[in-house]
Amino acid sequence: MSGSKRVAGRTGVAARLAGLGPFETALVALSVIAASFLLIDPLILGVVRDLDPAVRQVFRRITDLGKSSWMLLPTGIAFVVLAALRTRDIGARAAAAYGLTAQIVAFVFVSVAAAGIAASLTKNIIGRARPKHFETHGSFAFEPFAFTADFASFPSGHATAICALAAALAIFWPRLRLVLFVAAVWIAATRFLIGAHYVSDVVAGILLGSYTPYLLRARLAERRWLFVKGRDGGIRLRGARTLRWTGRQLRAGLNARRKAKGLRTDAESWSGGS
User: Fold this and answer.
1) Per-residue DSSP letters for 111-128?
2) Cα–Cα distance for residue pair 46/73, rounded to 1 Å
3) One domain, residues 53 and 150
4) What sign has the CA pseudo-torsion 64, 67, 71, 72?
5) Are residues 28 and 73 in the same domain?
6) What pTM was estimated for this model as a whole?
7) What is the C-alpha to C-alpha distance for residues 157 and 66, in angstroms, rounded to an integer?
8) Residue 88 falls within a domain, yes or no?
9) How many domains does the chain have?
């Protein structure tokens, strides 16, 4: 088969998948998930259990980075502080900068919180048994509405939270999106690498967490809050000039402190000056 025919074949498959209705799409998705539950998850679990204990200990130290508490608490405090500073008599431009920054922080907070709530509700409603029960229940065991940790495996809450954070930050700093997502996926992967989840739980968490901030952005753009839709259909940040001005002010403040301490400024460091 020639290269052009292979490309055409792949395009045809993609077109057929894109043309599926909601019911057919849900059926395909459920079939893929079921196949993963029955075939892929037991296979990966067996490989993971054979890992060197020292390697698994490293993953155990990393996995807590997926907890949402360290994401929500600082962003919640930062929002309150920024909102309070905005009310002070600091000038119109500075107030706008504080307001915009507060909205960005709020967006990150809501992205992580909303994704986490969705994951928590889903996993407790589905009630999938965790890998530690594999020998007695297998990988396709469920107790819906059990609301116990032992039957709350799908999707992974850690994977959802860390990927929601990565996606939210990537929206504002797109140049860092590759680094953010690679780091987030590795942190998420530790959940099945330590045996706390099946690999399908983690993949579902990655998808849910990554999707939530973009869905939130689209809804906010419809209301022209923080984001706005362009004529080309793309979504961009409102107040981008204010954000750039804020960045310049922060750099100027840091450089002033460096000079006061006898250190080189950013410009001097780049130019090699003393």
Assistant:
1) HHHHHHHHHHHHHHHH-B
2) 37
3) yes
4) negative
5) no
6) 0.82
7) 8
8) yes
9) 2
Domain enclosing residue 199, as ranges = 44-223
CB-CB contact of 221 with 227 (8 Å): yes
The DSSP output letter for 265 is P
Handedness of CA 8, 12, 18, 19 (dihedral sign): positive
Nearest Cα to Cα of residue 78 among 47, 32, 41, 109: 109
| Mean pLDDT along residues 160-180 | 96
**Residues comprising the chain, all counted:** 274
- Residue tagged 């990565």 (tokens): 166
What tokens were used for 133?
Answer: 């029960």
Predicted pLDDT of residue 32: 83
Residue 254 has pLDDT above 80, yes or no: no
156 and 87 in a common domain: yes
On average, the pLDDT of the chain sits at: 85
Which residue, among 113, 146, 109, has the nearest Cα to 127 in the 3D structure?
146
Q: What are φ and ψ of residue 142, in 5° steps?
A: -140, 145
